[in-house]
Amino acid sequence: MSMNELLKIVRYSNLFDLNHLMDAIDSINDETKTSVNNNNDDSTNQSGNNKDLFLIRGKNYRGRLRLDENIATKIHHAQVTDGEMKHALLDGDATNYDLDRGFTRHPIDDMRSICVKLDGPSIINHIKLLLWDKDTRAYSYYVEVSVDDLTWTRIIDYRTYLCRSWQKLYFAPVVATSIRVVGTHNTVNKVFHLVSMEVYYIQKPFALIGDIYAPVENVATLEGSAVVSEGVSRVRNALINGDYLSYDWDSGYTCHQLGSGGIVIQLCQPHVVSSMRLLLWDCDNRSYSYYIETSYDNMTWSKVVDRQTAACRSWEILTFSPRIVVFIRICGTHNTANEVFHCVHFECPCRPDVLKSYMNEQTSMLTSDDREENSVAYEQFYKLFEPLIDTATLNNPPSTTDNGSLIQMHTLLPFIIKPSLSSIYPLEKENDEKNT
331 exposed, middle or buried (CB, 10 Å; 0-12, 13-18, 19+)? Predict the structure, then answer.
């Protein structure tokens, strides 16, 4: 963008803070001084691609900003530079794939990856990946970005988590020219398979703790690529298909035998959650008792809800200290009518409008989860998370021109994640430990 455009057009649009304009003018001034010593032909070629450039303060790079548009496409001149069967990843087909075709892959070792090069430096904050999902396998991986293909910044690290199907990755805005996805684990073999990649700058408020998304909306849905991996029902995934009205004595619920196993839901990727909602079968006056455990690796489980001594009926709204969740296991312990536990509907987290109403009615919070020492309590988390719930409840996202910036869509919550632990910890405690 030229100096003239900044001064004559952008300045009077009132879309940007004047400090940002001054930063952009200063950057152009520096580039102009530098270009005197550089090849004039190179400068001319670069200037033709300067439309829609946006300056990120504190960075040495400028990137093009395209709102809510997938820029990892052949139309935008993106290309796969690393990986086997390169042609499949960006062909726009996320439905026609099987064991032999429709994906890009790389052997899982310390040397290989799948890399996509964009049409130039671009500002991004969201990536969607489709992991091969025609069976029950799960993958682990990490994602890095670079502007010069020399220095790489890791924006997502899911090496310790089991992920499946569609991955919706959120992160603070970053300028990237290349995006590298490195598979580190496959539960079936030693190959990492990626069906599709989409890259965006989205205008959607979102919250992060580290590199893990803290969703406001229910992610235990078919649309969210969740699955019910254990439990008996007449219709597969009936528990999370969104239908909590059509159930009777014979159908519309998921169940398990008391004292044997449980009902297990697997989310598509790790999320930080602190609430759930479920509907117990209630076509008569029976009551149930149960408990719920969560895990991020399907091996280490923590009890987040204990209702074994309660007589529970119909809708249950559950809150607990925030934690990283991939797997949820619901274990029934009692039914006043028979020896089977029946659940009609499940949400994780609880629907925002319902949770907001529930919290407004609470005078005190009593939780019975297995909370780690010094970890964040539910009340502390909810206090900081509530503004996002309010936004979702009101369905009124903040304007992208607030404070004159287009780059303030995310919220970094002041908590940290510790290795091999599912609980969330206050940021100040980590800083105190470093200072001692």
Answer: buried
227-388 and 79-202 share a CATH fold? yes
pTM of the model: 0.83
223 Cβ partners below 8 Å, 6+ apart?
none
Helix (H, G, I), strand (E, B) or coil at 115: strand
Domain residue spans in the chain?
A: 3-51, 79-202, 227-388
Say which CATH superfamily domain 227-388 falls into.
Galactose-binding domain-like (2.60.120.260)
Q: CA–CA separation, 324 vs 341, rounded Å?
A: 26
Listed in sequence order, the DSSP H helices in 285-398 are 352-361, 378-394
List phi, psi (to 5°) of 3.
Answer: -60, -40
Distance between CA atoms of residues 384 and 207, nearest Å: 10
| CB of 42 closer than 8 Å to CB of 34 | no
CATH superfamily of 79-202: Galactose-binding domain-like (2.60.120.260)
Q: Which helix (H) or strand (E) holds 369?
A: none
Kindly report the backbone phi and psi dihedral angles of residue 58, in degrees, each rounded to the nearest multiple of 5, phi listed first.
85, 0
d(CA 6, CA 82): 38
The Cα–Cα gap between 138 and 388 comes to 30
**pLDDT of the chain, 436 residues: tens digit per residue:** 666 677 767 777 777 777 777 777 776 665 544 444 444 444 334 334 444 444 443 456 789 999 999 999 999 999 999 999 999 999 999 999 999 999 999 999 988 999 999 999 999 999 999 999 999 999 999 999 999 999 999 999 999 999 999 999 999 999 999 999 999 999 999 999 999 999 999 998 999 999 999 999 999 999 999 999 999 999 989 999 999 999 999 999 999 999 999 999 999 999 999 999 999 999 999 999 999 999 999 999 999 999 999 999 999 999 999 999 999 999 999 999 999 999 999 999 999 999 999 999 886 655 666 777 889 999 999 999 999 998 887 765 555 444 445 555 788 899 999 988 899 999 865 455 555 5
What one-character DSSP code corresponds to residue 294? E
d(CA 182, CA 121): 21
- Give the list of residues 6+ apart from residue 95 with CB closer than 8 angstroms, or none: none
**Apex CA 187: angle with CA 165 and CA 169, to 5°?**
35
Per-residue burial over 253-284, b = 16 or more CB atoms within 10 Å of its CB, e = otherwise: bbbbebeeebbbbbbbbbbbbbbbbbbbbeee
